[in-house]
């Protein structure tokens, strides 16, 4: 069975070609939904509880009700992951506000939609090159505070970075400080400290980021573009890559500090 | 035949319950698409060419290719509108980047998806009450520059306005100036001039707004929140409502200037 040929769709595992979203689903018409990307390590889902805590927090803030228990969701994801046959894989939970009439107003009686998909994962540990782009994260707005289905700014930020020859983008927040990459958090070595941009500057509240802060290995800070110029080493973090070293920022080669990267990675 | 029971789906009119979007469509997974809302007046599509010009401009900026000719699209919309039986109706064109693998990177070989739907329209001319909200438009970013499927900030801005007792929101741009309502442009009467917030402050490039500017009836300006406090009269504009008077802003009652509103409306 090819990985990804089945999905968990509102509580049932079905073939992906039988799984469809209606044209009136607000996830499709308006980006009105949330998602989580989770790592299947080959044996278990890493940081499952943290992902569910974030999803739940985000859902409350956006006025969603998650239509399944955490236990149901875990069982659905684990059932999908059986096809990975012991290899690591990328799980994605997608959660929409469901069917609604025309317009932005949130319907009183929603039928939320909850879907899990799985895809093969090919993580490399090669250092990435980053390019600062012009598109900013809307600090303080739902599109930056939560992992919503409204991702166009990040898509185009990545495209800008690729056009500049980079692997990924560095996005500033609308506060003017550094925020994050297009789908990863940024960790920087600055004056001997390991810092990560603040949520108030538009950084995504990444699960790995949160874990490294709790472990005391990384501190949150407001980081200006000028400080970026003085950082010695840097890393990206997200649920799938864990921690990955940065080779260069805006064509400036950084110190690829394998010891520092391993220490961060080992905490996951 | 109930209005809305059929859709125009990648070139063919089919029943809506047979029209589905795949789970890997980037419109669904990432809000990676564009839409246009057009007015069927009962006899024709108002401002069709302006809508297509905006869609085309936006598609170029986001690196999309529209998979149908303008003539095909017009024929599809008009075929749908036959069910309106001479009444006005809301048409919506939804255009996604199509199926893609996991991740934000834009696939080389996309299969874009183009859909048109229709819904009954019930436009009232009652004045609306507006409430300034905290969520800002990300001035300069694709989510504000184009009518994309990534609409979460506007959805939550409307929800905030409703929670404050208003019918619609006034969103500031991240520049600090006034931008627009949740799905309409704002026109304000200030010192005898009819002004509308600038695109550079995060205003949506509305088709009716553009038409009123071209007609010399409205001027674009950077408008501060302080200036908002001194406006005598105001209106909202979008493709479906045309021009609609504003009753109050942040509980301050405005002058409902029927003559001014009629003059704007008459230009459409």
Summarize model confidence as the mean pLDDT of chain A. 96
Helix content of chain A: 25-40%
* Oligomer category: homodimer
Rounded to the nearest angstrom, the distance between the terminal CA atoms of chain A is 30 Å
Most strands sheet of chain A: 9 strands, mixed
Strand share of the residues of chain A?
A: 25-35%
* Helical/strand content category of chain A: alpha+beta
Order of helices and strands of chain A: EEEHEEHHEEEHHEEEEHEHEEEH
Measured by residues with Cβ under 8 Å of the partner chain's Cβ, the largest interface is:
A-B, 54 and 54 residues
From the spread of the alpha carbons, the general shape of chain A counts as: globular
How many β-strand runs of chain A?
Answer: 16
Poorly predicted ranges of chain A: none
Radius of gyration of chain A using CA atoms only? 19 Å
Counting H and I runs of at least 4 residues, what is the number of helices of chain A? 8
Description of the structure:
The structure is a homodimer of 268-residue chains. The first copy, chain A, has helices spanning 26-30, 48-62, 70-81, 142-145, 152-163, 207-214, 225-228, 258-266, and strands at residues 6-9, 12-15, 20-22, 33-40, 45-46, 89-96, 113-120, 128-132, 168-172, 178-180, 185-190, 193-197, 219-221, 233-238, 242-249, 252-253. Chain A has 268 residues and is of the alpha+beta class. In chain A, strands 8, 9, 10, 11, 12, 13, 14, 15 and 16 form a 9-stranded mixed sheet that branches. In chain A, α6 (207-214) links the parallel β12 and β13. Chain A is globular, with a radius of gyration of 19 Å. At the A-B interface, β3, α1, β6, β7 and α5 of A face β3, α1, β6, β7 and α5 of B.
